[in-house]
Design a protein that fits this description.
Structural class: alpha+beta
Shape: globular
Keywords: DNA-binding
Oligomer: single chain
Helix content: 10-25%
Number of strands: 10
InterPro entries: LytTR_DNA-bd_dom
Largest sheet: 5 strands, mixed
Protein name: LytTr DNA-binding domain-containing protein
Organism: Dokdonia pacifica
GO molecular function: DNA binding
Number of helices: 3
């Protein structure tokens, strides 16, 4: 397991609402599915255990464990799609990310099959965030 310290940025769950992780519980999130934002500072542990190559799993938010029985909940996302974006992102994957900005330069693909186009500046920002985690 890797510990995240003093990171900046945002993870986003598409299925939950979370404006401040320390004020919500996992049970609350399961009962109130909406869009969720989780800041790096709220993420304690990530792991690659039992994950496919280049996949990262978030194991704990503050002192809450992430345990999801319902696989239809999108708790992992795959960065894929257009070849140009795969090259830049190096096929890394991180859970809890959802994009709403759109352009014709790159695509983010969620595990539920939804795809979102993203612009070049966002693509660079996302790559930087991923590398910060992956190079820990």
């Amino acid at each position: 397991m890797k510990k995240i310290n003093q990171k900046k940025g945002v993870f986003v769950y598409i299925n939950y609402l979370l404006t401040n992780a320390k004020n919500k519980t996992i049970e609350y999130l399961k009962e109130n599915p909406k869009e969720t934002r989780i800041h790096f500072k709220d993420v304690l542990w990530i792991s690659t255990e039992n994950m496919a190559k280049n996949w990262i799993k978030i194991k704990a938010i503050k002192h809450e464990k992430l345990l999801y029985e319902n696989r239809s909940m999108v708790n992992f996302i795959r960065i894929a799609g257009k070849q140009e974006f795969c090259k830049i992102a190096k096929n890394l994957t991180v859970n809890l990310f959802h994009i709403k900005r759109k352009s014709n330069l790159a695509i983010i693909e969620l595990t539920n099959g939804d795809t979102f186009k993203v612009n070049r500046s966002y693509r660079s920002e996302l790559r930087s965030r991923l590398l910060m985690i992956w190079e820990e």
